[in-house]
Amino acid sequence: PPLGPLRIVEPHLPSLSDELAVQRSDSVYVLGEFADGWVLAMNASQNNECGMIPRRCLFFST
């Protein structure tokens, strides 16, 4: 199952076609995580668009 919703704490502007634009305070669900520091995410705040974002953009509570 997806992980989330999680809050975006750092915006990301795509530089490749598989990347997802996110803004601070967007809510996203993580669909997959990769060893290179990127995650596949679905942006619930932007019409459920999916794409890759850097893991550092996400807030993981402890």
UniProtKB/TrEMBL annotation:
Superkingdom in the source lineage: Eukaryota
Q: Write down the InterPro entries for this protein, in alphabetical order.
A: SH3-like_dom_sf (IPR036028)
Note the Gene3D superfamilies from the entry: SH3 Domains (2.30.30.40)
Q: What's the protein here called?
A: SH3 domain-containing protein
Source organism phylogeny: Eukaryota, Fungi, Fungi incertae sedis, Zoopagomycota, Kickxellomycotina
